[in-house]
């Protein structure tokens, strides 16, 4: 498949190890498909255990010199990389839409969002501060410094194949670490294109290594078991995250886990209804519902339930699903055939228990992996669409009567990543925001992410934060130095 790229060299199909483009040790390859058409884009090197070990060794060696460089030197390289990403935004967006499916406007937005982490941490590299602690003794001083944690391994998902990489790579490199990344097998091309631009930016060999592969278990086992890896950062499902954490415990690695979500939006009867409809729809159907912080449960106060449903359905009926490269498409496909089946199981179970699909409710009859934007009413908390992350364009709308009931419904989940509230009552804003068990709350707003905020969850949605001034801490170790015998 020929992609309309200004710079065809950004479409890479080999792994990137120690500054070189290489095939896997096995010589195997695997196909990457366009989910909107089913067409094969290219075949990519299928890396394995030996390749992973080589990448980790290269990272360990490269980091010795990288951590010696001044923060300003590291910042300069990152800034150059950022500029190249922005310059090549359109090509990166085309690559992303082709392999992931999201519409081109969303892909452009993700490239800019992903680049913002490189820019942010280029600056934060110069702001790694220590402390001098007053001590009980007059003849010594207590000094605290921060040093890079070591070689970082990262496993990234297919739903945001650019930004989920840059918000791990940015702080790792800024802190003085080297990193080895296994991108999702569905979307390795975005990762490889970023590596190509990093190479052009002058990033020294070995600091960034990309391992495209279908051998997730094999590479994961090496990353978690290799003693040279000091930290693992993972974005993906909660069950996989738990398994990785267990494996990391054998060598006591640092971990950052950004796991599953089940985000509620609570819409109270004093909310601006039009803004609530627009915000809920934008969040729910973004990337065809395939985001970890997209609204999974819409909770609407019973006094405005019918009015909300009417306006919400009218908006959703205007959506047009299609190839993300088609300018008339508002929403693209889901990632693969398996996703279609998983979504339909949840919808069918809800319908069998009494839910009503007032919009959609089934896969599209057009070619590709498309599912109709769907709205379910008459839903209850006994249905799996309340309990489980849907990860598709399906919006179940629940009703509640009181503030206390809404909070209880929102918290009735093992997940705690993001949540949203629509209300004009400032007292309620504070009460509900503090009572909801999650790491992030959007008040009268669902576009809550940027490079300056601490992204992350609580409960079984993970640990650690990405982005913001806090995002560098997960890549640094604190060292205490006691300076004694200071009397003349």
TrEMBL record:
GO terms for biological process: gamma-aminobutyric acid catabolic process. PROSITE patterns: ALDEHYDE_DEHYDR_CYS, ALDEHYDE_DEHYDR_GLU. It comes from the Bacteria. SUPFAM superfamilies: ALDH-like (SSF53720). Residues 21-481 form the Aldehyde dehydrogenase domain. Keywords: Oxidoreductase. The active site is at 258. GO terms for molecular function: succinate-semialdehyde dehydrogenase (NAD+) activity. InterPro entries: Ald_DH/histidinol_DH, Ald_DH_C, Ald_DH_CS_CYS, Ald_DH_CS_GLU, Ald_DH_N, Aldehyde_DH_dom, Aldehyde_DH_Superfamily, Succ_semiAld_DH. Gene3D superfamilies: Aldehyde Dehydrogenase, Chain A, domain 1 (3.40.605.10), Aldehyde Dehydrogenase, Chain A, domain 2 (3.40.309.10). Pfam families: Aldedh (PF00171). Belongs to the aldehyde dehydrogenase family. This is Succinate-semialdehyde dehydrogenase (NADP(+)). The gene is gabD.
